[in-house]
């Protein structure tokens, strides 16, 4: 407290150019300060103090040093707070309107943390499949995984991933291969061929072509024009020009909190479609 | 407004609150200071890159010399994913300004683990010995597939142990996230390796 007052007095002296006022300044201000503090503490003595205070104040110049010091400090502090708020706000946010299957958890990272800490059991999750990553064709090479939602957005899958290096497939692909691509951090764009014409397919293909960690394929009888899915999340729309499609791809492609296996690749997977009548596991 | 300037105590209080909030905000954004050379975090990152390096070596061999499609696909996956993670660990270490190598593997994980490592001639948990690597590299086809699965299962079990040891000892968010991801991914990969291996063994018997 004492040192602060000293600093303030010095400041006021420095910034005042008239010598006569400088001499008076510190003493007068000290008085004023006392009066004000008392006034603040006890209301009963306020009138007398205020009068005395006012009498002194009339002669006292504005304490510019004090004003500028505190204004400067305040501006700097507000600036820093503003910068911090901006930094937090500027982090990427998931697009609105996306259906996520993590229940009360925000993403794959959070749900696995809860599982490992023993806060929740797999079978008690809203959708246990968001943490299931077994190769269904491991025990039985002919087995094909089944999914609760259409198109699937995660869960047990086949041992091979579908190549997803901006890959556009003109015929349906196996769910189990595509889900493996989602595990690697890809976004899978599907369209209902009954609801999207050739020009529409062209528009959609442009979003995927040349974009690593994305793939696109027709999905007959989906009932909605376009559906995009990443591991544990999905967005459906009937508008092929819906900007949310692009936002979804921007946010979820290789999203570290959402890809079940970040760091894995999209190259060198299966490149055949069901039209090639290949075995599911190639 | 002018009255405010006559109350230094109030001004000082407001300033103090602002400064404190600003300080907290800056501190929060800047995060904690970088881990030191002998920290658990640096030790974990250093040892994981060495540990991963052997997995990449085994997986690259299996990719080139194995015969089972599923097993070779897993090998490709392990080689590429763990290479990516090696890059991540090295970036951490360089960012933190600590050494990338240490003559005392597992020292960060306490006495028990350091002892493990001393017994195996400096190998970390789950790592294959030179003899095992030599034998593996003499095999091709289904034999390589099966030995790859066996070595990699042991390797992953060790990796999960290391990740658990790190989780118990750190509250660094980067390290925690990576350790948790190692645990969840390698556990599910162990199951997949076992299933695919049993498949190959059954097919050989038939």
UniProtKB/TrEMBL annotation, chain A:
Pfam families: DUF3105
Disordered: region residues: 1-56
Biased composition range(s): Basic and acidic residues: 26-37
Skewed-composition ranges (Low complexity): 1-20
Transmembrane spans: 64-89
UniProt keyword list: Membrane, Transmembrane, Transmembrane helix
InterPro entries per record: DUF3105
Entry keyword annotation includes Flavoprotein: no
Name of this protein: DUF3105 domain-containing protein
TrEMBL record, chain B:
Keyword Coiled coil attached: yes
Gene3D superfamilies attached to this UniProt entry: 1.20.1260.10
Keyword Protein biosynthesis: no
Record domain DUF305: where: 41-195
Domain of life: Bacteria
InterPro entries named among the record's database cross-references: DUF305_CopM-like, Ferritin-like
Organism: Glycomyces niveus
Protein name: DUF305 domain-containing protein
């Amino acid at each position: 407290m004492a040192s602060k007052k000293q600093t303030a007095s010095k400041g006021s002296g420095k910034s005042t150019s008239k010598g006569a006022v400088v001499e008076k300044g510190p003493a007068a201000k000290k008085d004023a300060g006392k009066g004000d503090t008392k006034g603040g503490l006890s209301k009963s003595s306020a009138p007398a103090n205020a009068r005395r205070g006012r009498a002194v104040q009339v002669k006292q110049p504005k304490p510019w040093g004090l004003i500028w010091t505190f204004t400067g400090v305040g501006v700097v502090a507000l600036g820093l707070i503003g910068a911090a708020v901006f930094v937090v706000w500027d982090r990427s946010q998931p697009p609105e309107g996306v259906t996520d299957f993590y229940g009360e958890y925000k993403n794959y990272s959070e749900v696995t943390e809860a599982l490992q800490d023993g806060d929740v059991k797999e079978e008690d999750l809203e959708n246990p499949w968001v943490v299931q990553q077994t190769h269904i064709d491991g025990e039985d090479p002919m087995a094909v995984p089944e999914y609760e939602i259409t198109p699937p957005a995660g869960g047990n899958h086949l041992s091979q991933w579908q190549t997803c290096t901006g890959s556009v497939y003109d015929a349906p692909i196996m769910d189990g291969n595509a889900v493996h691509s989602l595990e690697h951090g890809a976004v899978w764009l599907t369209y209902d061929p009954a609801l999207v014409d050739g020009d529409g397919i062209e528009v959609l293909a442009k979003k995927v072509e040349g974009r690593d960690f994305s793939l696109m394929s027709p999905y007959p009888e989906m009932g909605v024009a376009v559906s995009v899915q990443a591991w544990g999340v999905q967005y459906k729309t009937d508008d092929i020009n819906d900007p949310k499609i692009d936002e979804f791809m921007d946010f979820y492609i290789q999203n570290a909190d959402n890809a079940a296996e970040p760091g894995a690749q999209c190259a060198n997977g299966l490149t055949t479609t069901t039209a090639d009548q290949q075995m599911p596991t190639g | 407004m002018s009255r405010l300037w006559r109350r230094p105590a109030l001004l000082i209080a407001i300033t103090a609150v602002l400064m404190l909030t600003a300080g907290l905000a800056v501190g929060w954004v800047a995060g904690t200071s970088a881990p030191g050379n002998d920290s658990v975090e640096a030790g974990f990152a250093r040892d994981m890159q060495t540990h991963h390096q052997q997995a990449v070596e085994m997986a690259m061999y299996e990719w080139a010399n194995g015969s089972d499609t599923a097993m070779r696909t897993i090998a490709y996956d392990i080689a590429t994913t763990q290479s990516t993670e090696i890059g991540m660990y090295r970036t951490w270490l360089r960012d933190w300004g600590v050494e990338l190598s240490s003559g005392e593997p597992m020292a960060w994980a306490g006495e028990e683990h350091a002892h493990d490592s001393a017994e195996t001639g400096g190998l970390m948990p789950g790592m294959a010995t030179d003899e095992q690597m030599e034998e593996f590299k003499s095999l091709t086809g289904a034999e390589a597939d099966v030995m790859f699965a066996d070595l990699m299962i042991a390797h992953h079990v060790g990796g999960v142990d290391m990740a658990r040891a790190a989780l118990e000892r750190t509250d660094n968010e980067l390290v925690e996230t990576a350790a948790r991801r190692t645990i969840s991914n390698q556990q599910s990969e162990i199951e997949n390796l076992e299933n695919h291996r049993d498949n190959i063994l059954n097919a050989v018997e038939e």
